[in-house]
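Figure-free illustration: sequence to structure, shown twice.
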Amino acid sequence: MRRKLFGVILAVCIGWFKAEALTDAAITTKPEVVNDQNQTSATLSCNLTNPSSPIKGYYWTHNGKTIDKSESTTGKAFIEHEIKKIDYHSAGLYACVFQTEPEVNATIEVKVLPHVVAYKHSENANEKDKAVLICVSHGYPLPTDWSWYKLSEDESEKTPIVNGTIDKYEIKNTPNKTTLYVKDLDINEDMGMYQCQGTNEIGSASDKIQLRVRSQLAALWPFLGIVAEVIILITIIFIYEKRRKPDEINDGINRKISFY
């Protein structure tokens, strides 16, 4: 009976120690977040204390994907990863993963300004038609707010474009994309430079799109050009034939006189 009681107490103690070991396992990250826009590079570090089991190895991930050449089978509890250039390519969620039983990990955020770029920097459309202007964003975090502006001729002033304004404009946004629809195009009012701007918690970035509006008659110009060429060609042939015929008649008369 005593042996059974001792065995139960021993099992409870072992389980308690294992739970304590698992609970006490902790990873200290440095820095916790990278968001200094003046910083061009960074060294991320993780320090594992009180692992629940021996460390069999470790690796780093970036946005859920294992970083090349970051895997190791050493039992180090302090590991580092260097980001040589901080930009929208390298921004995102980094995680250090220690291969213990079970695996433990910690996350470090690298945040930058949104990288906003126009899908096309020049857009052409016909008068009375609808123009579609698109901007996209990359990096982390993605914009939480999008804005559109119509710029003045010298681009010194910008007028905000409000979604649904007098049925002229329509704006559709997702975190990584914004689309501006300009309806019923007017060659005098709508042609010009437009600006899209994306904003996240770090700040704002923008890009520009040139909208060119063609006259409704623009599509007729190629046809009119062909018609003009045909008319000129017919005129030349007509003039040539008119000048040639009297010479042929005179030549025929001269031949008859010579024969007689």
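We now fold a second protein in the same way, so the two outputs can be compared directly.
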Amino acid sequence: MIIWGVLGACLAVAGVVVLFAVGAGALTQAPAAHSSTGLWTRAVDKLRGTNPRTWVFLLVAVVLAGGAALWTGWPVMVVIMPVAVIGIPALLRAPPARDIELLESLDRWVRGLAATMGAGRSIADAVRASARNPPERLKDTLIRMVQRLDDRWSAPAAFLRMADELDSPDADAVLASLILATQRGGQGAVTTLAALADSIQERLKVMREIEAERAKPRYVVRQVTLITVVVLGAALVFGRDFFRPYGTPTGQAVLIALVALYAGSLLQLKRMTIPRHRARILRSQA
């Protein structure tokens, strides 16, 4: 009865957290567009920007932590359960393939420019035309690019600012070629863009192969982690005498150290699968 009472209390606390989150707009509103200086206002802005899925995981972690701590009698479960529910999935999740997404958008954009310029348009006119049906990843950047051209920016200066906004070595290579083409008056630009599109395709192929290789160890670790959690959970339920030493203060310290080591190894694995930062080749003087 005591266990059920405490579990009910945990659910009540979780309900209060949900009501506070809804009241603050964390689950129903987008992040605030303005910046604040007050500590409380910044905290509320942070809550509003929290993904609803994160709130669900947080509430599940709160309930499981309270229930596990009471059932096992291990206070350390209050720390371990949130790490298991929120931290480990985050460490095992594949990082977003932003470089591949950007390259795919650049490939589509460059091929569209080449097709438009093949009809006799200048580079600036081709860029304006491309902004009418742009790749989603480049939509806002191309709109600002056209606005600069309409404000009488030179094409090289506008391309340099676009490169700063995209902040990618791959985008720098594409925009550097366009800058050189504009400085030559557009001569040979269609041939340059066609060669550039082929180069992007080759790089995309290599990057997809690299990403597939990086995904293999993540998949293996996910399987090992799942099996470990299932086996340990079953052993904790059906063979609690085996875990009795962890109920002592020393055992609690050992348990938290083992969990920290495992989480640290997952963090190291995640860092190893993140692409290395590459230096850019274009910088505007603004």
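Summary for the second example: Residues 1-37 have pLDDT under 50 and may be disordered.
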